[in-house]
Design brief:
homodimer; 196 residues; alpha/beta; Beta-carbonic Anhydrase, Chain A; five-stranded mixed sheet; 38% helix; 14% strand; Carbonic_anhydrase_sf (chains A, B)
Chain lengths: 196, 196
């Protein structure tokens, strides 16, 4: 099996595609031409098996804005969502976690231990690394972050929906989130009370 | 001009591609098969004109792990990089900002004012939204974050490089970063002293 490309190889590929590269319009040109921007933000994992262009069958780059981090976790992306909404204006958000995610195979504590073994005290107990214990729960929690953030425009938060992408079937399945079922909020509060 | 697809349309597209979807291997299966993971992390902007698959001519998903946020800013992605490195093991990082980036057309202060006009006091003076004043500087600063983070493995930080993608020519150009030129670090310290 061949090795994956290094940066040098990727830069060589960049040079080789210059000849066929089609220039992108400047923002000012796109605006002057009345180009309609995407209206959906897709937040998903950086896992190489999880490609929104494939699983949402995106036909054009303008079909969606794609934010990708480890797990597709919303927490570190709230300010990005706000910036996109203020600057471009967005209408809906899809939070898409996926089956067999790497984040379900480690815990934040495991990563903290590795990092602190290298540089003692470099990460505190509150350091998180996107770890997911329960996939549906993580989707619910992440959608919840947007619904309750004072920074996110209310109408956009209300149009945020949670999903799980099944890497085996290819299906994107909706997850019932707290706001869709007020009883779930109550159950969650009860469970969290029991944990204390 | 037609409107961009909404979530409902994207879910319809997902359903329509199920028939031709090829199942992805589970992590355990990939590991058992001795599959070699990607070795490069590409950090870049979520701008629809900036597609690393296109500008780095990625031939397979396994060519690189792609992290995307507003501007391709490293700050909110440090823990993601650590998680990827501990869980998979990474060799190099490319930080790729781009010309005509939306982040160069607004300031963090502009976004703070919009958000605080909606919900007074919801974002403080330290709230940042990825705004970039000087493109080369932002690349240098972001590479610098990794070089100086106690969380990032030293060898990986040393193999972090900064680039600017030109949306008109398609070229990815290297940016000389602080660590490559110690004199730049000195100049920066002097400039920051002068600002005080």
């Amino acid at each position: 099996m061949s090795s994956p490309p290094d940066i040098k190889a990727l830069l060589d590929r960049n040079k080789s595609q210059i000849q066929t590269f089609s220039s992108k319009p400047l923002l000012s040109e796109a605006k002057a031409a009345g180009t309609i921007p995407p209206s959906v933000i897709v937040i998903t994992c950086c896992d190489i098996r999880v490609d929104p262009v494939e699983f949402l069958h995106l036909k054009a780059a303008s079909d969606a804005v794609i934010l990708r981090n480890v797990g597709g976790r919303v927490g570190p992306l709230v300010n990005d969502i706000v910036a996109l909404d203020v600057f471009i204006g967005m209408k809906e958000i899809m939070v898409v976690h996926h089956t067999d995610c790497g984040t379900t195979h480690y815990s934040d504590q495991m990563i903290r231990e590795v990092v602190n073994a290298r540089v003692p005290g470099s990460v505190g107990q509150d350091g998180t690394f996107g770890a997911i214990e329960d996939l549906e729960q993580s989707v619910r929690d992440d959608v919840d972050i947007l619904k309750h953030s004072p920074l996110v425009r209310t109408e956009l938060a209300e149009h945020t929906h949670g999903f799980i992408f099944d890497i085996e079937s290819g299906l994107v399945k909706a997850v019932q989130t707290y706001s869709q079922d007020p009883a779930l909020v109550q159950i969650r509060v009860l469970i969290e009370d029991m944990k204390r």
